[in-house]
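Sequence in, structure out. First:
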Amino acid sequence: MAKKSDFSAFEWKLLKDSPYWVQTAITAAEGRMGMVEKRREAKALTAYLEGYKSSDGVVRDVLAAQDGKHEVDPKTPLEKVGETLEQISTVVEAKGGSKGLDAFNEFLTGAADAIAGAAGENMLKKADKISDEEEEALDLIGRALRATDADKSKRAAAEAAAHRAELKKRQAEAKKAADAAKKAELEKKLAEMEKKAKEAEAEAKKREALAKKQAEIREARRKRLEEARKKAAAAKAASQQKAAAEAAAAEAAAAAAARKYVVQPGDTLSHIALQFYGNANDWRKIHEANKDVIKNPGMIYPGQEFTIPE
């Protein structure tokens, strides 16, 4: 809502004197008037200004500024009055918008009604006895202030269009803000996902390093076990070889010991060969092995010790 401080000194002077410009328009249209009529109209305007109430800030400030003084020349031509009223309308709309202009126009047209009524005629309601001159003033005020129904309709349409444009702008801003919020939320989620991915990668590397270390430990253990097994196997083989050698030696010794035979009474080489070889005809083996002892194969003696060959 506009107020006095929104206007320049020149603009405010126009607004403060605006009721008197309306009065001058009516006076100019009526031509020369007697002192009685002029006083009646002046008194009607004063009463109107003192009793008028408005919720519009500019109108209230204009009413508060009224002190009975003004700089409007009552002899100003009607055309000049119209131009001034147009200027007032433009100034009010520029600072107060269409609503401010409608409120100010209502204030000024009400003043015109009060002035015209003082002379027994209502200009804006077009009483039956309105003269052509007054009709001209009425049209002039309506056009200058843009207070006609057509003007109000245009302003309402323009205001609706402005509201619609503002709504679209706000919707676009809201959408942009929403998109920005969504983008920020998405970026936040992506950052969280990236963080989790990095953490997972770090954990994977950690586990990979641990697995590698464990594999190295297992491999070292396997090698140690393999080496131990090899050593054990080698030791076992050596032990087995030694045992086998010892067994073979013992067996050989036993065999050697077992192949010694002491002749018993009644023995013959054939009898001994049959005992050891299972064939009496193998007596020659025994004879060949014991030639140093056996002088005559047919004559052996108890107590002689023979070597029995394989």
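Second:
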Amino acid sequence: MIEAIATVAGDEEIKDRAAASYYTAERLRENKPATGWPTLSGIIGESIVTKVCDWLGVRQEQHFEHRTDLGNARRLVARHGHHLRFCHPWGKWLVWDGKRWKEDDKDEPRARAKETVRAMYQEASELGDRAEREAAAKWAIASETRGRIDATIALARSELPVVPGELDRDPWLLNVSNGTMDLRTGVLREHRREDLTTKLAPVIYNPEAKCPQWIAFLQRIMAEDDSLISFVQRA
């Protein structure tokens, strides 16, 4: 539904916004902190969220995290958790680049933590009580310090864990530039975060591509036995 509404709304980041929504739903099922109305509006657009709520008959309730380092970490997870994982055995962040999970080499969690802090001013502006707005804005300013941002990132680690054994666990998936192929079926599909793939073959799969030299080689070494060639290809 999110993808359909985003398409109608002319959203150019449909897949990314849909992933954020699916991630939110998954966290709700696990009874974990998830994206609230202000954050979800920032991720997929207020007009889209409004349409979804209208269609589903859902009342738009605001939920705000505590004004603490942990609250900020949960804000970061709610806004950007679908892009981030932390591997504790490696002591490294992994970032979704649209095709695979790769080791962070650009300090992206920090950039996303800064964006989360900037979004807190919008959160403050939506409070009805003046004293609450001022308190929220004051906390947003305090959260811009290096210490608060460091604490936000550190506390978010345990919210987004992944271990090496969960990565690249399906040996039948081949990740290429234009999708992920299931080697059991030969079907190419879109890249998916939940595959937890870190490898990428930098080639574009073309099902119509020809390989005359390879076919000629197989014909020669297997005495033009097509049944044997077919068996070897499946083995």
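Remark: Residues 69-166 form one domain.
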